[in-house]
Design brief:
The protein is about 35% helix and about 15% strand. It is of the alpha/beta class. The protein contains 15 helices and twelve strands. The chain has helices spanning about 15-20, 25-30, 45-50, 55-75, 95-105, 140-145, 155-160, 210-215, 250, 265-270, 275-280, 295, 310-320, 325-340, 345-350, and strands spanning about 5-10, 35-40, 85, 110-115, 150, 165-170, 190-195, 220-225, 240, 255-260, 285-290, 305. The protein is globular, with a radius of gyration of 21 Å. The two termini are about 15 Å apart. It has two domains: about 5-175 and about 345-355, Rossmann fold (3-Layer(aba) Sandwich); about 190-340, 3-Layer(aba) Sandwich (Rossmann fold).
Length: about 350
């Protein structure tokens, strides 16, 4: 007999990396196991698109109010659900009203999933005036009232255990069979160093740009940035490609060397290393800052490099630019790491077991 699984999520299906690579990749797995899936995003597509544009304050506010009203309507449908899965929050703004109703009024159990240090304030400039509406503190209550909590790494899990003892780590994963299926071409003459991410995280490149500017004087390469907004860096090697879901893997596979610089702060400690995982899945030689989960993904010199300071970054970028065989070796070892520990295929049962009891 089919059982219904409700996903209560912030964003429209297919639009946000945190959803795509946390649980959306497993929807066919659930369906094959006999579940009927219903995905209920807080934002409709139009409001989601408006939210991350400049201005439109009134339109944003009206859109959020309408989404809130629809959320209240959904709450009365939850009795149809055999299982409930909440990713990050039931409503993108406001206190944990819906989580409280689900747990305390309806007495329904739910699995709570998160993949960033979302109890800490973090917002884009385009939405700075609204960020106080987020009520970041609600995350701790959502964890406390959950039947089970799944976190993207051990740092996040350790925070969750302050509020709930039923905490499991399930990493953000890569589908190496159906999605990340193109490999970096290390035989081509042009060397491409690359980074991908949104404009909100592009500031992590600030300390890397002077190093790239130095390397431009002695080496020939392209610096590829794949993002939703163009960078403003003054680099001769810079090439910008606007992120496109349809071509994202093909664009990534142009890289021979993938970089993931981070600052050593509380927010970065909670990140799940996703950029690096994507690079490694495509056999792109990867360099990451030794922050948070990165130190458990990369074994320095074996399946990639860790770079602590500017001298490290320059040395390791130089090594990889000059040594094709090293790029190939680290790229292949990186892909093996993904297949063994961070692939969808390896983690399917972890998701299915969430709802077995």
């Amino acid at each position: 007999m089919s059982k219904t699984l409700f996903f209560l999520v912030p964003y429209p299906k297919g639009e946000a990396p945190s959803q795509r690579f946390r649980f959306e990749q497993y929807l066919t797995t659930f369906e094959s196991a006999g579940y009927t899936i219903e995905i209920h995003p807080f934002y409709d597509y139009t409001t989601w698109q408006t939210l991350y544009s400049e201005g439109n304050s009134l339109k944003k506010a009206l859109g959020v109010i309408i989404c809130f009203i629809k959320r209240f309507g959904l709450i009365f449908q939850l009795r149809r659900a055999d299982y409930i899965f909440i990713h990050r929050e039931v409503a993108h703004v406001g206190p944990p009203i819906f989580e409280w109703i689900i747990a305390k009024i309806l007495r329904r159990k739910y699995v709570y999933d998160f993949d960033d240090a979302i109890w800490l304030p973090n917002y884009s400039e385009s939405n700075a005036r609204f960020h106080r509406l987020k009520a970041y503190w609600k995350v701790n209550y959502a964890m406390k009232w959950a039947d089970k909590v799944i976190a993207g790494n051990e740092y996040l899990a350790s925070h969750a255990r302050q509020f709930n003892q039923q905490v499991q780590v399930i990493p953000t994963t890569i589908d190496t069979e159906n999605h990340h299926t193109i490999l970096s071409d290390h035989e081509k003459e042009e060397i491409v160093i690359g980074w991908t991410g949104t404009h909100t995280t592009m500031h992590y490149l600030d300390e890397l740009v002077p190093i790239l500017r130095e390397l431009e004087k002695t080496h020939s390469f392209k610096f590829l940035v794949i993002s939703n907004e163009a960078p403003l860096y003054n680099l001769d090697s810079l090439e910008f490609v606007k992120w496109n879901k349809e071509t994202e893997i093909e664009d990534l596979a142009r890289m021979n060397i993938g970089v993931m610089p981070l600052q050593h702060d509380i927010w970065s400690e909670g990140k799940c290393g996703f950029k690096g995982l994507q690079y490694m899945a495509l056999e792109i030689a990867t360099i990451m800052s030794p922050v948070g989960v990165n130190t458990s993904i990369i074994y320095d010199g074996k399946n990639g490099f860790l770079a602590t300071n500017p001298e490290d970054w320059k040395e390791k970028l130089t090594l990889l630019i000059e040594d094709k065989e090293l790029r190939i070796k680290l790229g292949k070892a990186g892909k093996t790491t993904i297949e063994e520990r961070y692939s969808v295929q390896t983690n399917k049962n972890n998701y299915l077991q969430l709802f077995e009891s």
